Structures are given as C-alpha cells and as structure tokens.
C-alpha cells in the first residue's frame, strides 16, 4: 500500500482563495483587514518567512505592515511598538516573528499583544480560551493541521490521536484541538517510554518533535493519517542541505493511509492560517459573522 500524499501547497492555496473572498466582502463595506508583522534581528529563515507573510498578505487583498527592528532592539522599544500596534485601528492582527534574540523575553512581548489581535494565538488568554473549549485565536500551524485532518477524515470523533511533541506553539494546542474533536488524545515526546508502541496505536499521528526522521514506518499503524510538522535542515552531502520532517517519509509512505510531505505539507498551511486568523480577527473587531471553514 502507498499512502495518499496530502498536498499542503494546494490546500493552502485553497485557504488563501477563501480568505481573499472574505477580504473582498469586507472591502465592499469599506473595511480592509490589516496584518502587522514584527521581525527583530536578521535570522535568515525568519527573514524568508516574514517576506512570504508580507507577500501573501498583499496577495489576498489585506494591508501589510512590516516592522523590521535591529537585533539589539531593547525590550522597552519592542513593547512600545506593540502598544502602538494595539492602538492602531488599521491593524487587526499582530505577529511577532519567533525566535526573538536571546535578550528579549518572548513571553512578555507576546502577552503585551492585545489578545483580540493575537493572530498567532500565543497570548496566555488565547491559550486559556482554547484549553477551556472557548472561542480563541488558534495557533496557525495546529489550525492548518486540523483543517487537513478534517478534510481527509471528516469526523475525527473517537479516533486515537497521538501528538509527538509538547511545544506551546504546536504540540499542546494541537492536542487541545484534537480533544475538541472528541479524539482520544495522547501527548508523547522524546522521553516517552515505549514511544514506538504509543505511536503504533495512533489512527492520527502528529509528529512535532523537531528531530529529523525520528519516526520510522514501522512505528505507524497501517492506514493511519500522518501529519508531519517537523522542518529539519540536514546535510545532503557535497556542501548541500535538504529539508526532512520528523517522520521517515520513505518508510512511512508504505504503511500510512495518508501523509503530509516535507517540504510542501504542513509548512504552507502556517501562513495560510495566519491570513485566515487575520480575517477572523477583523470580522470579530467589526462584529461581523466569521468566515466559514476558516476557524474551529
Ligand atoms: N510568530 C511565529 N513565529 C514562528 C512561527 C509562527 O507560526 N509564528 N512558525 C515558524 C516559522 N513559520 C512561520 O512563521 C513558517 C515555517 C515554515 C513555513 C513553510 O512554508 N515551510 C516550507 C519550507 C520552507 C523552506 O524551504 O525552508 C514547507 O514546509 O514546505 C512557513 C512558515 C517559526 N516561527
């Protein structure tokens, strides 16, 4: 058996199309959703992500506000910028690109963002709302994973879901979302005993542990749906590198029912869901109905 490949690029393009339609409707009412992205420092990967965010924001018809600050920016200056963006009515979504330089306290900065504009869903209030099953801003990567799972499987109720990884950005919110779908959820991680056996029990396996190709095909239940969140750059010889996921794709594809590739799986959904969250935040700010199919 060979797994169906879940194409994240195609899926993300579909989501962006839905977002663009929502933006057109808002513009007809004289409202333009706006997304502010803050980049501190010159991390090359973050540079690429921020550039792509800005480009895709404009492509769906939103206003893009980019703030690039030097690596030695003080916490006070960054907090002052966040405060200005909180107060700016043209800005419906605020995102501070992570990681921040070491001297800045990311928790402090994220929790200074107005929770209604926290399109990353990282603010402690949104974390609490999601954890208690209330309307929240949902972190983009897990939201994208859930959209793909719903599309693939329909109802998820009663399925065994194993999330490997316990980060605040992916693992924990992913587990909350799957619980919200009435899955039986296990959060596993690199120190879990008998990790292979835990994974073998999964109808849905979400790998978000950040270890290149840690999960081989023989840890996967035949027919399972595998969502690989890992984006790991490894040596490809001859001075080159390549991207691999947390799942060993070559062996997993022979066992799984469906699987996301790396690259081209979950990654593109992250920015598409950021745009979806910005549209949602804008609708909420104006007391308008939320876009269908783009929120949980
Ligand atoms: N404030 C935030 N910071 C970070 C987040 C986030 O959601 N909010 N996530 C990541 C980076 N990220 C977006 O910011 C992101 C990562 C990967 C991709 C993507 O499309 N990946 C491609 C491969 C890209 C490549 O060639 O390197 C793929 O998987 O196909 C988009 C966005 C950390 N920081």
From TrEMBL:
Top-level taxon: Bacteria
InterPro entries: Aminoacid_DH-like_N_sf, NAD(P)-bd_dom_sf, THF_DH/CycHdrlase, THF_DH/CycHdrlase_cat_dom, THF_DH/CycHdrlase_CS, THF_DH/CycHdrlase_NAD-bd_dom
GO MF annotation, one: methenyltetrahydrofolate cyclohydrolase activity
Subunit structure, interactors included: Homodimer.
Residues at which NADP(+) binds: 165-167, 231
NCBIfam families: PRK10792.1, PRK14186.1, PRK14188.1
Function, in words: Catalyzes the oxidation of 5,10-methylenetetrahydrofolate to 5,10-methenyltetrahydrofolate and then the hydrolysis of 5,10-methenyltetrahydrofolate to 10-formyltetrahydrofolate.
Gene: folD
This protein's pathway: One-carbon metabolism; tetrahydrofolate interconversion
EC number(s) stated in the UniProt entry for this protein: 1.5.1.5, 3.5.4.9
Protein name: Bifunctional protein FolD
Hydrolase listed as a keyword: yes
Keywords, alphabetical: Amino-acid biosynthesis, Histidine biosynthesis, Hydrolase, Methionine biosynthesis, Multifunctional enzyme, NADP, One-carbon metabolism, Oxidoreductase, Purine biosynthesis
Catalytic activity: (6R)-5,10-methenyltetrahydrofolate + H2O = (6R)-10-formyltetrahydrofolate + H(+); (6R)-5,10-methylene-5,6,7,8-tetrahydrofolate + NADP(+) = (6R)-5,10-methenyltetrahydrofolate + NADPH
Recorded family membership: Belongs to the tetrahydrofolate dehydrogenase/cyclohydrolase family.
Acetylation keyword on record: no
Pfam families to which the protein is assigned, alphabetical: THF_DHG_CYH, THF_DHG_CYH_C
Species in which this protein is naturally found: Plastorhodobacter daqingensis
Domain Tetrahydrofolate dehydrogenase/cyclohydrolase catalytic: 6-120
């Amino acid at each position: 058996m060979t797994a169906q490949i879940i194409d994240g690029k195609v899926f993300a393009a579909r989501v962006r199309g839905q977002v663009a339609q929502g933006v057109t409707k808002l513009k007809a009412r004289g409202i333009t959703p706006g997304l502010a992205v803050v980049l501190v420092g010159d991390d090359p990967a973050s540079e690429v992500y921020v550039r792509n965010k800005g480009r895709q924001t404009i492509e769906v018809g939103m206003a893009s506000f980019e703030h690039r600050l030097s690596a030695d920016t003080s916490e006070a200056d960054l907090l002052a910028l966040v405060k200005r963006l909180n107060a700016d009515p043209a800005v419906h979504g605020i995102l501070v690109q992570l990681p921040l330089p070491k001297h800045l306290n990311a928790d402090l900065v994220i929790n200074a963002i107005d929770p209604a504009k926290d399109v990353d869903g990282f603010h402690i209030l949104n974390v609490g709302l999601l954890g208690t099953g209330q309307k929240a801003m949902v972190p983009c990567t897990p939201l994208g994973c859930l959209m793909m799972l719903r599309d693939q499987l329909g109802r998820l109720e009663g399925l065994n879901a194993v999330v490997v990884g316990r980060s605040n950005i992916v693992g924990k919110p992913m587990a909350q979302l799957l619980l919200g779908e009435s899955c039986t959820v296990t959060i596993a991680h690199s120190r879990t005993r008998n990790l292979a056996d835990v994974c073998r029990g999964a109808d849905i396996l979400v790998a978000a542990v950040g270890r290149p190709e840690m999960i081989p095909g023989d840890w996967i239940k035949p027919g399972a749906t595998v969502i690989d969140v890992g984006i790991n750059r490894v040596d490809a010889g001859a001075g080159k590198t390549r991207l691999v996921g947390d799942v060993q794709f070559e062996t997993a594809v022979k066992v799984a029912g469906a699987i996301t590739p790396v690259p081209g799986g979950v990654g593109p959904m992250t920015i598409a869901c950021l745009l979806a969250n910005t549209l949602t935040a804008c609708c909420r700010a104006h007391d308008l109905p939320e876009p269908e199919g783009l929120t949980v």
